[in-house]
């Protein structure tokens, strides 16, 4: 059972036209030459209860919530059934090499002779604080006795809101960090996770973790305010920043043995000019600065480089070029 509603909506006219059909072909003119890519067999139809879906998934109901706005604009019916794919979906957009199936990810884990695989869900470009976390996670797993832990860097590849960085630029930025050695290529599998973003906070993080279990991962990193967003009606965060992590830790039984790795917060040490783990009780806490995503975007738009040590230069160049060309 999915914790967030990944559905296919249809109009009343289509529902009526499909009455009595035993199989319905799915076609997208953008891919596979317009030929069918899948078939829904024995289709069933459900009322699209938009307000109930939004309230349960997001803990509120407002069309100002980015995904609730999408859902309320859907048609009035949902279709489901037994799904048979006729071919692997190829988008021909320069990123198909990253669109690995769970089976292909399992094969990549074996090919790297990994005895552990830790997944990191991300929808943003990576700065050196993220890289510090990912390297430290490998180190911690080695201290637990694993010989060759491998990272599944698994950025979101579906719909996201307009002010998020698009998939192509994010993949280019992640690849730049691998190419320049910021992240070691021999210890990484970079793949696109095709889910849309729901901004559903704690509810969505259950989907983030459980949907990757079949990829063969052994560990999952859950961060601060996963899938969080500002309240659609008030100037506050919609979700408690640590609720998602706590919820996942307490629901590990649904992850088929996958361990949850808590997220450690990193910030910019202005004295050392480096991203380091932040301890608010430390004597040097005043030396740390949190560089927000909005500030990072503004620097990129203004053509200003971030402080030394904040992000790989090659990675920054990808991000800066995107914002400069907006």
Can you describe what's shown?
There is one protein chain. This protein is of the alpha/beta class. The protein folds into two domains: 9-85, Sulfate adenylyltransferase (Roll); 96-266, Rossmann fold (3-Layer(aba) Sandwich), CATH 3.40.50.620. It is built from ten helices and twelve strands. The chain has helices at residues 12-17, 50-58, 66-72, 102-111, 128-143, 167-179, 201-210, 243-249, 293-302, 313-324, and strands at residues 9-10, 23-26, 38-47, 77-85, 116-122, 149-155, 188-190, 219-222, 259-262, 266-269, 274-277, 288-289. It has a five-stranded parallel β-sheet with strand order 7-6-5-8-9, with helices on both faces. The protein has a four-stranded antiparallel β-sheet with strand order 1-4-3-2. Strand 8, helix 8 (243-249) and strand 9 (259-262) form a beta-alpha-beta unit. Helix 6 runs antiparallel to helix 10, helix 7 packs across helix 8 (243-249) and helix 9 crosses helix 10 (313-324). The mean pLDDT is 94.
């Amino acid at each position: 059972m999915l914790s967030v509603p990944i559905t296919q909506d249809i109009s009343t006219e289509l529902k009526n036209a499909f009455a009595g059909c035993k199989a319905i072909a799915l076609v997208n003119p953008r891919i596979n030459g317009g030929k069918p890519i899948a078939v829904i067999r024995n289709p069933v139809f459900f009322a699209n209860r938009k307000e109930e879906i939004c309230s349960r998934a997001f803990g509120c109901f407002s069309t100002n919530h980015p995904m609730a706005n999408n859902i309320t604009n859907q048609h009035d019916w949902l279709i489901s059934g037994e799904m048979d794919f006729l071919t692997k979906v190829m988008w021909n957009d320069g990123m198909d090499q990253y669109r690995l199936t769970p089976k292909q990810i399992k094969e990549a884990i074996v090919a790297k002779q990994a005895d552990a695989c830790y997944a990191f869900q991300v929808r943003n470009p990576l700065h050196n604080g993220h890289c510090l976390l990912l390297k430290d996670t490998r180190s911690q797993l080695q201290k637990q006795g694993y010989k060759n832990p491998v990272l599944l860097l698994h950025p979101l590849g579906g719909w996201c809101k307009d002010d998020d960085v698009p998939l192509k630029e994010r993949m280019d930025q992640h690849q730049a960090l691998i190419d320049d050695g910021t992240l070691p290529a021999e210890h990484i599998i970079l793949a696109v996770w095709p889910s849309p973003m729901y901004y559903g906070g704690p509810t969505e993080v259950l989907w983030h973790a459980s949907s990757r279990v079949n990829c063969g991962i052994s560990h999952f990193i859950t961060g601060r305010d996963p899938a969080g967003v500002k309240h659609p009606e008030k100037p506050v965060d919609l979700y408690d920043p640590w609720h998602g992590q706590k919820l996942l830790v307490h629901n590990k039984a649904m992850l088929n043995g996958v361990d949850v790795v808590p997220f450690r917060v990193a910030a910019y040490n202005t004295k050392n000019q480096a991203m380091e783990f932040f301890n608010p009780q430390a004597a040097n806490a005043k030396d740390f600065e949190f560089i927000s995503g909005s500030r990072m975007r503004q620097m990129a738009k203004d053509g200003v480089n971030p402080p030394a040590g904040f992000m790989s230069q090659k990675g920054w160049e990808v991000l800066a070029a995107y914002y400069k060309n907006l």
